[in-house]
Amino acid sequence: MSTHTELPQAGNESAGSCCGGACHTDTDTAGTEGAFTAVYEVKGMTCGHCEGAVSSEISELDGVTSAQASAATGQVTVVSTAPLDEEAVRAAVDEAGYELV
After folding, report:
1. Contact at 8 Å (CB) between 1 and 101?
2. This prediction's pTM
């Protein structure tokens, strides 16, 4: 079973920021309103090429605005405009040659 957390992004992300929001502008947060973040565990990633393959396949799913895989943690963080179907994510990870845990 995958770790899957969906969190609506706050409209003002500068609250609680390490820099107090001094480095953020209105354009930094404009694209994240109504966004959902999900973290999935992926088995088999060992390097940057693996990260790129997984991120690329997931990025092609409808509604995905960002996909960032990390071989070090075995996780991929996906930001989308709506909650994603886990089976669609599983198929994308399989297409990349890896396994959604």
Report:
1. yes
2. 0.68
